[in-house]
Input
Amino acid sequence: MKVRRQEDIRNKLLALLPAADFEQVAPDLEFVTLPQGTLLVKAGQPIEDIYFLTSGIGSVVVETPEGHRTEAGLFGFDGYVPTSAVADVEISPHDVGIQIGAEGYRMTFASFRRCMETNRNFSKVMVRSMEVFAVQLAYTVASNAVHDVTERLARWLLMCHDRAAGENFELTHEFMA
Output
């Protein structure tokens, strides 16, 4: 299913675009449903698609050489992933997956890069969003270094709540662990 009207878009970045710029991007957007556990891209693999969520929550997961995995950042209707595509990086440095079932729009990597090169407003919004995500990652690192587990959990729950539609959202104990 293709995008019909910008007013129907619940992704904050796509909604920010001026109407004429959105019209250039819209033909490349395909609506998708992403169940919990969907892996959008695996670390070390080519980035085939870029995702703009309209609901649900996803995670960027970092794995150390020793095999320890941790969530570095989370995203929802406020951004896009994988953000490294903005820098024309074709191989994902991290796993990116869906933690709470989501819906959104998918765009091929090639289409995303074409829009970055030909649509100045699209490019500005994507670059600024990547900077916002980098700030989130930095504060997550700082929080993990200085706060106890109760404060980190409270921060994380608030971040999930900010990206959830409504007051209730489904989280499993495994996901919170």
Remarks:
- The helical segments are 12-16, 19-25, 109-118, 120-146, 149-163, 173-176.
- The CA atoms of residues 111 and 162 lie 29 Å apart.
